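haha ok so turns out i had the wrong file open the whole time. this is the CORRECT one, sorry everyone. sequence first:
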Amino acid sequence: MGIISRVVSGKRAYSLEDFDRSMFFRSRGHTLSGVSVTEESAMRFITVFSCIRVLAEGVGALPLHVYRRRAGGKGKDRAEDHPTFALLHDAPNNEMTSQAWRESQVGQLASSGNCYSVISLNRRGQVAEIYPVAWYNCRPVRNLQTNLLEYELNDRGKIEKLPAERILHIPGFGFDGIVGYSPIRMAAEAVGLGMAASEFTSRFYGQGMNIGSAIEFPNAMSPEAYERLRAWINETGPGLANSWKPIILEDGGKFSRFPLTFVDAQFIETRKMNRDEICGLFRVPPHMIANLERSTNNNIEHQSIEFVMHTLMPYLTRIEQACNLKLFTPEERAQGYYVKFNVSGLLRGDYKSRQEGLNIQRQNGIINADEWREMEEMNPIEDGSGEAYLVNGNMIPIEDADSLNDPAGEGGENTDVTSSNQRGNRRQ
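then structure:
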């Protein structure tokens, strides 16, 4: 019995060893650079791997909770008693944590444009487990008889079909809204150029004719002198320990160095440009993959915030909406259950700016002292005084402004500004 059969049947006796490398489709992406670019081969290119790792770990590290809206739509509460809460927050199955599952899903989504998970239900019809399936072993198909979407899964060569509600499918950008495009294949030429340049560099040092110097003789050397020189070079010439040792030449020999540099061929600049192109493909700021050429202490914080807003947010909303659609019944959605990532920790900024922002909220009665302390990982005030909401005393409701400006009635003269302010303070 394969992995899909075990998940569908509700049996828990499966492991990662059940996955094989069989797939529906994995074409060889040949490029003009002569390098075959696929989702798997591109991951061996450090720039691609670094970008996808930043995306996967960024989403995996965020808190993910299930909430329920309060009656009337004002406010929400964590629905820790809902069975989906533990699956998304702690462990979606008995073999991986929530972070590991999300990293796996986002890694596949960022590289192939799609990620899939099989939803296992208990006898009451509730979600019991969520288990990832490799993107190349799953694909959506349209049932021509019912016109409904189904999913075909390749389980060790055996094709099994599941209804759409049993597959948690998160597609990336795509024209049909069902299957996402693979960023690796859409930008295969740029990725292939970077892979080819990396391979060329490795082969240059490993197999190329990397001759650093030469010894010239005006006349032919005698066999004895040649063998003596060759033996000396092989024994004591190469190696870091022998660097800068003088060499003894005879028969008028002359030693010359060959300076070889890639800069003359603009090779390094080509690699830098390619690195920036791939960062643009995944919308990852270069400083997050250790490229600090254009980053300073003044702008790196804003770049990090932009990374959350413009790079991570599309992934987060895709995951949230897919989970809301597939992990809750229509009745639960009507009751106000939904999934939400908490990104406030990534958008806080530096300590001073964060405290100034919280202080503004505190002074305007938006948060109390205990809520402020909770954001800073501090316990509430024990005597309960931290639950009070405070506002500035010089702020009054707008409907009371006319009466304070004209306390004597229409046409009256307000001469006691102090008493008016005091009355406004008492109203708070």
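Residues 12-25, 414-428 have pLDDT under 50 and may be disordered.
again sry for the mixup
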